[in-house]
Amino acid sequence: MEAAATRNKKLTAKPAKLGRDVQARLGQQLRAMYDEVVNQGVPDRFNDLINRLDSSGKKDPQ
Amino acid sequence: MSMDESVRKAVLGAVPSLRAFAISLCGNVDRADDLVQETLLRALANIDSFQPGTNMSAWLFTILRNHFRSEYRKRRREVEDSDGHHAESLKSQPDQYGHVEFREFREALAQLPSDQREALILVGASGFSYEEAAGICGCAVGTIKSRVNRARTRLAELLHVNSAEDFGPDETTRAVLASGGE
Questions:
Q1: ipTM, 2 decimals?
Q2: Measured between CB atoms, does B69 come within 8 Å of chain A?
Q3: Do B2 and A29 touch (CB under 8 A)?
Q4: What is the pLDDT of residues B130-166, one digit of tens each?
Q5: Does the beta carbon of A44 lie under 8 angstroms from any beta carbon of chain B?
Q6: Which residue in A31, A49, A57 is closest to B40 by CB distance?
Q7: SS3 sequence, chain B?
Q8: Cβ contact, residue pair A37, B16, below 8 Å
């Protein structure tokens, strides 16, 4: 029953399989949005954090 | 524990992508940065459980994702409609990602169920294989594949695109046109 309902939905709704061109454009936008953050690099707070953890580790007698 | 230079490099190298992933999960830069910071603290406190030679980035993503999930579950008790809440928090902070040109896309992304959103980001933007994404999310490879497919289909519906032409002018052109009056 449920499978039949899903099939019917698929027939009436938009094609389930996206064209390659659409997939490519969606992928492009997704990466562009993501890369906008990636391209900001490493904010100072994280460099500071790692430096702090690293130096506190070095003081450790172990 | 003194930090091995290769560990230090790998951890710092993963930060930009961890931030992008965290922002996509919680929709807020400040919270995302806190999430990344907590992830780094946890990771370095448990660095012994990292297996050298395996993917440091995937390991960090797993920690971040699990940490977010447990926080998310806690918050969920307070905020019932978590996905709706996420979408709302994005709308109220239109500049969180920086440029206004991705607003439409971001809003559509925010409307996806969180399982689908994270799968799509991991595979489509972070560059993990389906296998790696499955490892990060703790589910089967087939599950990731179907989540990614459903996410793409839903995104296309939300953005009303059936073909590449439906995207209209490319984003740069659209941004130029949009800012023309200002």
A1: 0.76
A2: no
A3: no
A4: 999 999 999 999 999 999 999 999 999 998 876 655 5
A5: no
A6: A49
A7: CCCCHHHHHHHHHHHHHHHHHHHHHHCCHHHHHHHHHHHHHHHHHCHHHCCCCCCHHHHHHHHHHHHHHHHHHHHHHHCCCHHHHHHHHHHCCCCCCCCHHHHHHHHHHHCCCHHHHHHHHHHHCCCCCHHHHHHHHCCCHHHHHHHHHHHHHHHHHHCCCCCHHHHCCCHHHHHHHHHCCC
A8: yes
